[in-house]
Write a structure and sequence with these properties.
Blueprint: H1 2-14, H2 18-28, E1 46-51, E2 55-59, H3 60-68, H4 72-75, H5 81-103, H6 110-132, H7 141-150, E3 156-157, E4 160-168, H8 171-182, H9 187-196, E5 212-216, H10 226-234, E6 245-249, E7 252-264, E8 267-268, H11 274-304, H12 319-332
Antiparallel strand pairs: 1-2, 3-8, 4-5, 4-7, 6-7
Length: 341
């Protein structure tokens, strides 16, 4: 029997596709883990069988039942005769492997049993939470509109400008470039040349559209760029800013030359906009779910008369104490003497 099994296993794993499918089914379809504990090949049309501690059979009916329990995208893989044949082989192969594992007493392995128990607890918690929270999570259109009205500030597009901008990190080079532009060369042509040489950084450095900042707002830039932002928002559309602007961001100097091309005012996005509506629905449901969860847990705590004894929890060592302890250890460690020359 073992020789036959060895040949069978060799055929299984010589396939380029079967092992991956097998792993997928074993992971996503837990029924395989217990299939050896039920009658295999009961009344029905037998489509596969093998000998391992007795005759093991698989029926067409149980195969179709298992396929129907798979996610829809997986079911589509097993709709035609070729797909059903693949699934039939995988069922036989998975049960054969499980039979070997059972012979090795892996169904009694403490580590596996612990994981099974943990998973069982996880499923139980998910199930009871779904019953008590998710099934009661019902919001109406009015609820979504009320959430939007209460949180309208989250759905405001700030004032923005769009610039043609050149940003460099060398003052002398920036002065040269500014002279080129004021001498008549278009800023976008200059930006393209600088991009080709890899000199552009910061706003306007996108290699696919050199010089174009797209629409930018004040909140999109780090501290230190205020002189640039103030000038950009104050400038007239179509006008080059006079001179090179120097900014300091975390100790790095940047030199910026720009022309203001477009501007748009602050805009309150309406609830009807698709991205706004999706965001409102997601956040409103999350908020409602959290409220239901808090109420339910509080009710459980009250029902069980939960008592906590915080004073019995030992104090953890503070970060300051840990740092002081490390410094003391460092001071106590003798410094090795330098060898005499």
């Amino acid at each position: 029997m073992l020789t036959g099994v060895a040949r069978f296993m060799g055929r299984i794993f010589s396939s380029r596709i079967a092992p991956l499918l097998l792993i997928g089914i074993l992971v996503t379809h837990p029924v395989f883990y217990s299939c050896g504990d039920k009658a295999i090949g009961a009344d029905g049309t037998v489509v596969a069988e093998f000998d391992w501690n007795g005759k093991q059979r698989i029926t067409l009916e149980e195969m179709m039942q298992e396929i129907s329990e798979l996610p829809e995208y997986k079911q589509r893989q097993y709709q035609d005769k070729e797909g059903l044949e693949t699934y039939m082989l995988l069922m036989a192969e998975s049960r054969l492997i499980l039979s070997l594992a059972r012979d090795e007493k892996l169904n009694e392995d403490p580590e596996i049993l612990k994981k099974v128990q943990d998973y069982l607890h996880e499923l139980m918690v998910k199930k009871i939470t779904a019953q008590e929270i998710d099934d009661k999570l019902v919001l109406t259109e009015d609820d979504y509109i009320q959430y939007y009205e209460a949180n309208k500030a989250e759905y405001v597009r700030p004032a923005q400008v769009r610039l043609s901008c050149v940003t460099l990190m060398n003052k002398e080079r920036a002065d040269e470039v500014y002279a080129q532009i004021t001498g008549g060369q278009d800023i976008l042509e200059v930006a393209q040349e600088l991009s080709d040489r890899g000199e552009l950084v910061g706003p306007g450095a996108n290699p696919s559209t050199p010089g174009d900042t797209d629409y930018i707002s004040r909140s999109a830039f780090p501290s230190g760029t205020e002189p640039f932002l103030d000038a950009a928002f104050a400038a007239e559309i179509g006008q080059m800013h006079e001179g090179v602007i120097e900014v300091d961001v975390q100790g790095e100097k940047y030199y910026m030359i720009f022309r203001k091309d477009e501007a748009r005012d602050e805009y309150q996005k309406p609830f009807e906009e698709e991205d706004v509506r999706k965001s409102v629905i997601r956040k409103a449901e999350r908020e409602k779910r959290q409220a239901l969860m808090d109420s339910w847990v509080a009710e459980l705590r009250e029902r069980a008369e939960v008592k906590t004894y915080i004073d019995r929890i030992p104090e953890g060592e503070s970060e300051e104490a840990e740092e002081a302890s490390e410094e003391e250890q460092s001071e106590e460690t003798p410094v090795e003497a330098e060898p005499e020359e």
